[in-house]
Every structure is written in structure tokens, then in C-alpha cells.
Amino acid sequence: MSDSTEDNTREDTGRSVRPPSLADLVIVLVTLVVLIGGSLALFGLDALDGPIQVALVLCALVAMLVVLKNGNRWDEVEASGQRALSSVTSAVFILLAVGALIGTWNMSGTIPTLVYYGIQVLSPGWYYAAAALLCGIVAMSIGSSWTTAATIGVGLVGIATMLGVSAPVTAGAVISGAYLGDKLSPLSETTVLSAQMVRVNVYDHIKRQAWTSIPAFVIAFVLFLLIGWVWGPAATDMGDTASELTALGDIYWITPLNLLPLLLLIVLSARRVPATLALMAAAIFAGIVGIFTQPAVIRAFVGEPGLNPVVAGIKAIWRAMANGYVKSSGLADVDRLLSRGGMDSMLPTLWLIIGAVTFGTLLEDFGLLKRLIDPMVRAAKGTGRLFVAVFASAFGLNIVAGDQYIALVLPARVFRAEFAKRGLAPTNLSRLTADSGTVTSPLVPWNSCGAFMGAVLGVPTLAYLPFCFFNIASPLLSVVYGFSGFKIEHVSPEDQAKDGKPRGE
Prior knowledge:
Helix content: over 70%
Mean pLDDT: 85
Family: Belongs to the NhaC Na(+)/H(+) (TC 2.A.35) antiporter family.
GO molecular function, one term: antiporter activity
Oligomer: single chain
Largest sheet: none
Organism: Nonomuraea turkmeniaca
Pfam family, one: Na_H_antiporter
Distance between the termini: 26 Å
InterPro entries: Na/H_antiport_NhaC (IPR004770), Na/H_Antiport_NhaC-like_C (IPR018461), NhaC_Na-H+_Antiporter (IPR052180)
Shape: globular
Radius of gyration: 24 Å
Strand content: under 5%
Order of helices and strands: HHHHHHHHHHHHHHHHHHHHHHHHHH
Structural class: mainly alpha
């Protein structure tokens, strides 16, 4: 609807729309804190199984009431909700594809093979550091933290369980590595978006990102080494894992052929095939490979001995994609590793994301987020304080809006003119928004990224949060650079004009 049409409609109906007040913002934020805090206090880590989802839906309803009270129409609220749902369409299909992939990869032996080989190669003393480094390399190659966590990450957490090392620390290492690679890869959509929002070349953005990302990862790597050496087992006692290795060998034919679906996924991701298509192709391919390499597993899973092998294979793939693979081996660690996946396992996560993003979109569309951020911009007098304001805005939006794209896009849009006015190069802002918005998103349980990581890794967000050393160090280093002036680039008004970005734009 155009502005003129909107104005005429308002005149005809005698309706006036009031901008959100400070009281409106306080009501919404207090509701969020009380309901989320209450659900965590009452249910602990189990809050993510439903109570937090209910809290977010109630928060969205309160936001709707505030918006309606200010004179907005219900059809405008509905349109905002529709925009929220459309914004998470990609995430919905990626999550469903990941659920299908985990189910068929367990059934076909892909994940068990990764675990089988990993147990024999990786030592507990340097396991966490190796996990972070491996995930960093993979994520940088394919440009996706989500895909890295859903594939290599799942296997690494499974190996951790078998080795007797900490699953939450391993999850922290996986996420640290995955987000390092995501930030430094030109294939990453968040990296490209960070550069586009402040109108800088993506490779210039990546070069500036390296000044915070690499030191932050070095800090994380050293901490993971120390944890492994000081608090972890000194060495793998193969006697402790022999029963698990034997069980995996008895259930599956362990062969490098089982890793073909992983190879396919890496190739498709490197060739920039959309994530949903790449994940689903790898899931279906794994099921087909499993028909030939794991016929006994397929027959046992279907549970119909007289069924035609082709029909049995189709039925097994279908069921594994829908409901996941289930196995009762008699060994708790093995059963926890294998009995996972399925699209239906992702439904609580989708419920969480829909509630969070709907709430955040309502706040953005009707001016409540702007009411929150504008005072931060006005209060940021020096460069250091300006950097703190950007960080607080991005991290706060990850908490309030529940979506990393809002946390990335909105601060870049709001602070771009202020950076230009102060003669600060736009690359400073692109680096800062990525450090503050992208990497802190998996630290919030109801954020789309936090919900995803908790679901696919099987470790609650609040359990792995203290060990996401890279995700904590990266934004802190950015803020420190702002106060110290280290690697802070300045531009003259003439340079901005040459780039088509006049001063004060």
C-alpha cells in the first residue's frame, strides 16, 4: 500500500496511528524477560521442549495488543506475521532436510562410520581443539555453519560420547569452528549480507574480519587444548570403547563407501547448490547407498522379513526421513548415537523459531525496535561507545527478535549513517555487525541459530554456551578494537563521495 493510499484510508476512517512510547517498549521487554525467565526457572533445560515456545507465542500476542492499542489495524498485524513466516521459509526447509539427513545417515552407516574411525584416530587430550579446527576447515570450504554442525558436528558429538569426553564442550568446539569458517568464507550468505548491507566488497570485508576472527579462534583453540589436557582423560582407553566399536561393527558394514553421502554434500555445497537441495540430495543418496551396503539394517528397521528388497528399501528411507532411525543394541551410548533424526524431530525447533521470529518482526515493523536502538545511537559519543552500541544492538536483537538476520541487518542499516558522519570506514561496521550479530546468534536458546544447534547436536544451548569461546571472544575483540583504535579505518568525505556514499548518508 502506498503512503498516499494509507493516508487517505486513515483520513476516511478517522484513525490515527501513534508511534510506540517508552511504556510500550517496557511492557513488551518486561513480558519477554518474565515469561522466558519464568519458563527457564520452572523447567530448566527442558524449557526448550515447549514452555519457551509458549512464552514466545504469548510475547507475540502482547506485542500485537500494544500495536493495536496504538491504532494499527489487525490486517496490518496479520501482514507482519505473514512476513515473519515468509522470512523463515528457508530455515524451515533446511531444518526438515537436516532431520531427514540425520535419519538416513544413521540408517545407512554414514554417521556410525565417522564415529567408528574417529574413535580410533582422535585422542581425548586434543579432541576439543581438533574438533574446532576440523569444523573451521569444513565450514570455510562450504560456507555454512548449519551444514557443518548438522554433519561433521553430529559425528563429533557422537564420538565424544563414546570417548567419555564432554558433549557440551565438544558442541562448543563444533560451533566455534563452524562460525569461524562461516565468517571467513565468501560462500557464506551471512558474510555476503554483512558486506552488502554497508556497501563494501565482500573480499575487503573478509580481510577485515580476519583481524578479529583469527585471534578469537586462536584464543578458543588454546582454551580447548587446555581443557583437553588438564581436565580431559589423558589418553583413550580402548577397553572402555571396545564394546561400542564391536557393536557398531556388528550392526553395520563399516566401509569408506558409507562416507560417499558426506562427499556428495561437500561437493554440492562447494558448487553453491542451495542448502535445502544439497541436504535432501545427500539424505536420499545415503538411503540408496544403505540399501546396497546395509541390507540387514534395512530389513531389521522395516521389520517385514517377506517384503520385496526394493520396496523395503523405499519404505526404510521414507520412514528414516520422516521419523528418524531407531536402534536398540543394549548399549546406551550406541543407542543414543543411532536413534536420532527424522523431520518430526525438528518440529519443536520450528515451533520455537516461528514464535521468536514473529515476535521480532512485529517489534521491527511497528517501530518498537527503533524505539530501543535510537537512544543507543544518541548516547554513543566516542568511537568505543559507538562500537559498544552496535554490539549491544546486535546481541540484544538476537535475544529480543530471535533471528540473526534481523540482528545483522538492522544495526547495519541504523548505524551506517553514523559511521559515515564520523569518518569511519564502512568495513569497520561490516566487521562489527558480523562479530556482534552472526556469531552471538547460537548463544540464545530461542534464536533460530541457537535452536538449530541445540536440536542437531543434541546438546541444550545453555549447556554448550560457556564453551563457545570463539563466539564470545570475537565480539569482545571488536569492541576492544573500537576503544583502542587498533585496526580502525577512517575515510575522508571525498573518499565516501567517490564510492557513492556521501557523508551523512
